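Render this sequence as a predicted structure.
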Amino acid sequence: QVQLVESGGGLVQAGGSLRLSCAASGTGSILSINSMGWHRQAPGQQRELVASITNGADTNYADGVKGRFTISRDTAKNMVYLQMNSLKPEDTAVYYCNVAVDHLSDSVFTRNLELWGQGTLVTVSS
């Protein structure tokens, strides 16, 4: 079973930085990673896309984080990172990593299967 585990969240003052990491385990069943990304869900709000990166290394960012956040990946280690600089109180949320993979397990092939981590809390104080 493929598992995603996020780390790096915590409490930081406005203007500070955090680096989130997401590690995939049980990756022997993954044939390829098509895209990786980060979403966040603020208290009382809907989950929203923060950043994503495709197989071709094309990146996409939410308007509110452009110029402050950077998504990166290590394909050899099946990891994705989110470097967050100049943090604002509005960035406070639970951050979730997700991947879309081509998966093979028990002779069953699934194309573009979406997997989600359990989330890591980022709190930015003013």
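Summary. The chain has a mean pLDDT of 94. The two ends are 40 Å apart (CA to CA).
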